[in-house]
Amino acid sequence: MSKEAMLGAIRRSLHRGPLPEERQQELRARLAGHPRHLIPARSRLPRAGQIALFMRHVEKEFGTIVRVPDAAAVPEAIATYLAAQNLPSTLVMAPHPELRAIPWEQRPLLSIREGRAEASDLVSVQHGYAAVAETGTLVLPGVPERPTTLNILCDTEIVVLRASRVVGALEEAWDRLRAERQDATTGGFMPRNVMLVSGPSRSADIESTLELGAHGPRRLHIVLVDDDPDALA
């Protein structure tokens, strides 16, 4: 079904025709202007405070997080986490340049395959685009170098995130995405999907009993790379 056919079906169901030109102009202005919503005061903190707030919310939402001084420390941090959780050392990893640049050879027992996750994969390593301090939320746009399947199929998801990519409020994450994802053809770009992940998958739909891994990973572990001097406490 074409875009016009789909919109026409919606208009018919609403018993109306196309929007008046004045209303269309209002909507175009709103899309172009990106009006900002309320920014909670709790996110208006110095950088070190924002990182601390982010970490608290991650743990509050049943996730785990560890800080490392640089990217070279990531393989050791991941190997230590896998051993503590009695998890296999076979990983499927996002084909992102920042992850490829990590010296994985320091931990030769880690077996890494790049690409999308398959149903048989147990542990994924994802690249964190950004994160929101006020809610402990990861922002994961779906692009070829950051496959969405890594966020859904594996029982355990590990996200490597730079501290400089942690923002205070959700509005700031959208600002960053709009500013950094542009192209000459359209003047702007949004990926097909953007996943907002706050902790591992969970549900209490059945008898109000919390169940982790209901429709995604049952474990979410973040390796936070301290690349922002202002964020160090």
From TrEMBL:
| Superkingdom per UniProt | Bacteria
Among Gene3D superfamilies, the record links this protein to: NagB/RpiA/CoA transferase-like
Q: Which residues form the LUD domain?
A: 130-225
Q: Which InterPro entries match?
A: FTHF_cligase-like_sf (IPR024185), LUD_dom (IPR003741), NagB/RpiA_transferase-like (IPR037171)
PANTHER family hit by this protein = LACTATE UTILIZATION PROTEIN C
Q: What is this protein called?
A: Lactate utilization protein C
